[in-house]
Write a structure and sequence with these properties.
With about 180 residues, the chain is an alpha+beta fold. It contains 4 helices and 8 strands. It starts with about 25 loop residues before the first helix and ends with a helix. It binds nickel (II) ion.
Length: about 180
Amino acid sequence: MPARPILRIGHPLLLQRAQSVAEFNTPQLDALVADMLETMEQAEGAGLAASQIGVLQRVVVFGFEDNPRYPDREPVALTVLVNPEIQPLGEEMESDWEGCLSVPGMRGWVPRHRRIVYRGFDPQGNPIQREVEGFHARLVQHECDHLDGILYPQRIEDMSKFGFEDELFEEHPEIEDAC
Ligand code: NI
């Protein structure tokens, strides 16, 4: 199960809608999931959609215990979700910093539904249903957006809050001199 190259923003496949998985519990699906998990782990990502490795099927993986990319986050159980659907719970939106393995080195301030129910299946076809909020809800919304060809920069409302991670979050002692 090799890690696969991750497509970066600008690649046309990232803008395509992925197709539903028609058959569960197949060697093809198991191999895809194994490659996705390996790819996510090697890249130290919190989530990955099949589209990001150029496979237009509705499969996402997500979850982490301690992730150096997201040191302050509550852990999310490692999950493989096939044919996911999301239903927002209530109107409440919440904005937070978001990154993506297909947009390396950058972060943006993205509004998402604060609470959702998500449903889908594991690779064997067993149903999964969870009610979640906060970062877990954000992660699932981000990954499922990939399956519809949407990258997080398209969700940013204030483009002044989009940039390179090291420029956004590191101190800039030179600014005092410049002002
Ligand atoms: Ni992403």
